[in-house]
């Protein structure tokens, strides 16, 4: 059972946060992301123009957190729970010392919105956290130093993400390096905080031939985009129903508190195709709804996708 006090019967009511406010916060998180990351921005423009469809849907949004002192999954989840999201399954990554929880969007019973991106059908949300207690004492000291010195940061997780401001002070470059040597996820989170880690294009909801993920991957590679190759470019769940791929993260220049300027990994963009479940194989194509498709996430896929921000993938040569 996820340790979250959620209003579990609230899938149909968005009680505490209004929809237009909620969507505009998502829109701000998205602008921070698009302004910092040229690759996701150009991929979205390219896919929109080639697909020729006014609607491009997001499958999910993903965030990273430090699982300590109230800074973990719950700190950001509360904003989504207040808008009627429901906690779904937990995923565990023991080797990476991570856990994650995904959240299903509210279903208010009204028609599916026909807008694009954050104005379209609401995306799932994937939030992970570093199991800080399992890190070395030196790494824990760095993480505690920044989180404990900003006790209010956790209350304003969504605000921090929407503003694109770190919820704690900038670290020393040596502290970043130290975390990176133990966990690239930890180092990423120290310098990116609650910034959107990625948005995911819902591939099966595109209208052109790009609505097959293999075609989309091929198209993007031909255009020169570097895709995460960890365990193979295409990540397929054991049941075959969830197929994912992602670009390698962009890098951004970051000025540390000791004055050192370094290039650090920022965000990436992901692609997900969800196949129609065996149970609905006979439903006519024009009647297929998102609910007829493979839902949720897959630990084996996610484990590889995390590495989209890892140095090994960033420094790989294209092709
Ligand atoms: C999340 C990686 C996992 C998915 O869809 O399974 C993921 C991350 O990089 O923080 O996005
Ligand atoms: Ni993802």
From TrEMBL:
The record, for CDD domains, names: VOC_like
Cofactor(s), by name: Fe(2+)
Q: Which Pfam families match?
A: HGLS (PF07063)
TM region(s), chain numbering: none
| Keywords in alphabetical order | Dioxygenase, Iron, Oxidoreductase
Q: Which GO terms describe its molecular function?
A: dioxygenase activity
Which InterPro entries does the record match to this protein? HGLS
What EC number(s) are associated with this protein in UniProt?
1.13.11.93
> What Gene3D superfamilies does the record point to?
3.10.180.50
Which EC class, in a word? oxidoreductase
**Superkingdom in the source lineage:** Eukaryota
- PANTHER family recorded: 2-OXOADIPATE DIOXYGENASE_DECARBOXYLASE, CHLOROPLASTIC, DUF1338 DOMAIN-CONTAINING PROTEIN
Recorded family membership: Belongs to the 2-oxoadipate dioxygenase/decarboxylase family.
Write down what this protein is called: 2-oxoadipate dioxygenase/decarboxylase
Higher taxonomy: Eukaryota, Viridiplantae, Streptophyta, Embryophyta, Tracheophyta
């Amino acid at each position: 059972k996820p340790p979250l006090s959620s209003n579990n019967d609230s899938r149909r009511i968005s009680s505490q946060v209004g929809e237009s406010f909620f969507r505009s916060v998502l829109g701000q998180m998205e602008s921070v992301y698009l302004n910092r990351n040229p690759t996701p921005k150009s991929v979205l423009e390219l896919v929109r123009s080639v697909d020729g469809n006014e609607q491009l849907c997001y499958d999910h949004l993903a965030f990273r957190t430090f699982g300590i002192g109230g800074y973990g999954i719950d700190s950001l989840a509360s904003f989504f729970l207040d808008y009627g999201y429901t906690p779904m399954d937990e995923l565990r990554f023991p080797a990476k010392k991570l856990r994650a929880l995904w959240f299903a969007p509210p279903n208010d019973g009204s028609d599916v919105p026909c807008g694009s991106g954050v104005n379209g059908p609401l995306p799932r949300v994937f939030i992970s956290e570093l199991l800080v207690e399992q890190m070395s004492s030196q790494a824990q000291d760095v993480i505690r130093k920044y989180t404990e010195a900003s006790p209010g940061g956790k209350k304003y997780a969504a605000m921090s993400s929407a503003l694109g401001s770190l919820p704690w002070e900038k670290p020393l470059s040596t502290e970043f390096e130290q975390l990176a040597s133990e966990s690239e996820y930890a180092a990423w989170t120290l310098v990116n905080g609650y910034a959107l880690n990625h948005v995911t294009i819902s591939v099966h909801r595109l209208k052109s031939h790009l609505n097959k993920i293999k075609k989309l991957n091929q198209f993007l590679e031909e255009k020169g985009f570097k895709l995460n190759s960890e365990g193979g470019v295409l990540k397929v769940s054991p049941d075959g129903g969830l197929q994912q791929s992602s670009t390698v993260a962009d890098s951004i220049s970051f000025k540390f508190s000791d004055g050192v300027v370094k290039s650090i990994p920022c965000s990436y963009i992901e692609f997900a195709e969800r196949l129609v479940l065996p149970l609905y194989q006979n439903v006519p194509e024009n009647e297929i709804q998102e609910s007829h498709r493979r839902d949720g996430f897959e630990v084996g896929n996610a484990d590889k996708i995390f590495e989209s921000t890892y140095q090994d993938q960033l420094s790989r040569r294209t092709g």
